[in-house]
Every structure is written in structure tokens, then in C-alpha cells.
Amino acid sequence: MNKTVLITGGSGFLGSKVSVLLKEKGFSIICLSRKPADTINNIFHWDPKQGIIDDLSDLNIDIVLHLAGENVGDGLWTKKKVLRLRESRIKGTQLIVDSLRKWEKLPELFLCSSAIGFYGGRGDVELDEQAGKGAGFFSDLCDEWEGIAQSAESDSTRVICLRTGIVLDANDGPLKKMTLPFKFFVGGKVGSGDQYMSWIHIVDWVNALSFCILNENIIGPVNMVSPEPVINSEFTKCLAKVLNRPALFPVPRFILKSLPNKMGQELFLNSAKVIPQKLLKHGFQFKFTTITSSLKNLLIK
Predict the structure, then answer these.
(1) pLDDT tens digit string along 178-207?
(2) Is the separation of the CB atoms in 266 and 137 below 8 Å?
(3) What is the tally of helices (H) and strands (E) in the chain?
(4) Where residue 86 sits, what CATH number does that domain have?
């Protein structure tokens, strides 16, 4: 596969793993970084906050994979944090879209990160890609974010918005934080534990992204989640069993509700039963379909 992929967020949790897979499949990788450019190693500079980006028009880029953005779960949602969450996604995506529009040769595919936060809290209603947006800060942000990405669509450029759920990996991301209290024997369910968690094993996420790149019939939003969402109490019970720890200390709802700017509600208490209908329709085969098999694979050495 002799194609060139431009990646933002290439050194991050997901980007670093995707880069390895794409290189193995024969793609050439170019990265955009906020660090100084190193063109010998195919690293170019950008600064979304300042609206600065190197001229990439002569690099013959076939695919743009935009994964960069402020980490949602890193730190409290103070006013400054909320502003960074929004600006990193809106300004960054707009800068990429404006830049690629100037290229003489438009990319054949633009993949933009998004999140299942688009759906908000919807209880036990099954949500496929046809479901509308929910309510709340992050739902509004995802909607605006995807709107900018979709504006890059043309006769030459296919656009995919990757609505990602909780990506499970033993060494990084949410699961690493989730396991910590259990290791100290103070783990438990979150709130009532009735809220749905839509998750995906890191291997399936990376393979699903590759599947989207290679399948030209996939366009628009794609739910990057397992076909088997679970409620928090079930997830907690399974995690405790795999770690051989008790699950006796629930996180009280009132503590999460006290977090600033509805962070607790949107990140921990909202229930989103998301189904990867588009991936299933196009024949993607998940390697890890149950939370038990995923956690055992990741945590039992």
C-alpha cells in the first residue's frame, strides 16, 4: 500500500499505535507536531492555538488522520480546561481543513477523531450512527467538531468521523486509571452502576480504523465501540474478578455531581448504549466482543 498518511496526534495514546499498524501495512507516515519541524524524519510543525501550520501542499498526501486534541479525562473541567477542550478541537480541525483545501491534490480521505459523547446521556436506548445528538457541553462540542470535519467532503475527499468510546489498553488510557483503586482494594462501581459504558479493545480500535481506510464505502460517522456495551456495575464486577480484588467501595453519585462544569455527569454518570452498526454492516470482525475476554487479554499476563 504505497500511500502517504498525515497524522496529527501521532505520538498520543491512539496515534502511536495506529502509526505502527499503518507502517506495517506499507503506508508512509508524515506527522504534524507542535515541536520544531524535523523534515528528515517526516515531522512538520503546527500550532493550532496560534493558527500556524507548515505548508504541506507539495507532499502528495493521500490520507489525513486527525487525532489531536486536549485530553478530556486529564484534570478537572475548570473554565480554562473547558476552553482548552473546545479550542484544541475546533481551532485544530478548522486549521487542518483550511490547509488541505489549498492543496492542488486533495486527499482521498479525511478521518477526524470524535467521541460517543456526541450522544449525551440516553439511558438504555440503543444508539447507532443514525441517532441524533444529545444534550450537554461535550455533545455540542462533538457536533460542532464533526461539522467542521464534514465541510472537507468533496467529490475527491471522503470524510469519516470516528466516534470513539472507552478504549481499553493495559498500559495507557482510561483502563490504567480504572485499575488503580482496585489494586489498592478500594475499587467499586460508579454511582448507581446502571449507566451503560460503550468500550472497545485497543486492538479492535486500531483494526477498525484500518478497515475504514481500506473500505471506500464507509463515510460519515462511525461508532468505534464493541458490539457489547455493558453497564458500569457489570464492568466493575468483571474488572474486580480479573484483578482478583473486591469491589466494595462505590464512588458516590453526589461526589461526581460536585465536579465542576458537569464533568462528573458527562464523563462518569451519562449512559450511552452505543452500537457499531456501520462497522457491522460492512463486515468488520471484532476480535474481542465481550468485556470478560478483553480484560483477561489485557490484564492477565
Answers:
(1) 999 998 989 999 999 999 999 999 999 999
(2) yes
(3) 10, 14
(4) 3.40.50.720
